[in-house]
Amino acid sequence: MRTVCHKAFGTHPNLAYDNDLKDQCVAIGKRMIATTPKYTVGVDLSDTFLDLQKQRIAYEGWEAKSSEHITSKFPPSHAGFMMIRNNTLFLARLMLINRSDDIMKWDPRHPDYFRCYDNQGNRIGMEEPMQLSQMLQEVIHTDGFVEVNYLDPKDPVKVGKFSTTTTTRPVRVEKLIDPLVPHLKTNQRVAYLCFVRSLFWLVLTMERLKMPGGQRLIDHIVHGRFWVNDNQQDVAGRPLTLKASTLGSLIKKQMAKVAITCGNDDQDAEGGKETTKLSGHFLRGHAGSLAYDLNKLGAKWQSDEGIIRARHTFETFFKNYHRPTVKRVQIAFLEKVQANIELRFEEAALL
What we know:
By secondary structure, this protein is mainly α. It has two domains: 2-32, no CATH class; 46-260, no CATH class. It has helices at 2-9, 19-32, 46-60, 78-96, 100-104, 132-142, 173-176, 187-192, 195-208, 244-256, 282-295, 305-310, 314-320, 327-338, 345-348, and strands spanning 114-117, 145-148, 158-159, 162-163, 166-168, 228-233, 239-241.
């Protein structure tokens, strides 16, 4: 109508657009547009869990014949370091629901980034000097917890230069044992999927591996970084630290081992390519969705547990990350609920 009047009567002040009002109307219209879920296909990580376990079993050279046994030693070597590094990275991304950029700027050797507590909430390592591996072992033995912070996270939710704190706990192995589920049939297999235990073996390996100059690998890494290649060095002769893009690629390569292809985040248009490949950030969305969906089925953690760990808003979560949790996991979780077994998020994420 405005166009018709303009043609009939020419330019007139009363027919001019109010740009501010136009912008408001457009913004309201966008919020009112009916949207469909970006992702409708869930991700089942059971084959990935089996592959992670297969790598550990092949390297350590043994497999438990009964359920009671758990790994008690891990031979330090370059091959062992690379394998346990990559496995721990995958479990960290799953349990902490972080970005590649977050985990790149993380250093568990320093308390600004990482702290260990026993099950009474007492800070471990305050009474006497302890190696990081010793502190992690105490967390596991006492069923304690660890706190994680990242330097300069991309999200605005931070305290000073650091992110808000994410708390995670070891897996209670006995809560997950199920002889009918291949990746949960023994203590050994369940323990392999515990982030805190995997981090313990990684740190212990880094404490034992020596650099060409005789220094321990863990002592020779630049402050503020942790993920390195022990066979490559930077210009200062220190272990080469891995970029965020490299850490993201390691996750994609792990998924490719079980014939699941991941694309790049910037290629992930509305509707996605979920029938042929996952988005690069799928693991963050998968874990956050599992936390949200299982809360609706009776989990004791808060519905926004995954969103808090990922440090984004509900709106961003549902618009760009949420995907339904697969039925197999929902059924397995409901069986635990019916059996009065209360799982932590870290445990439910491994079903």
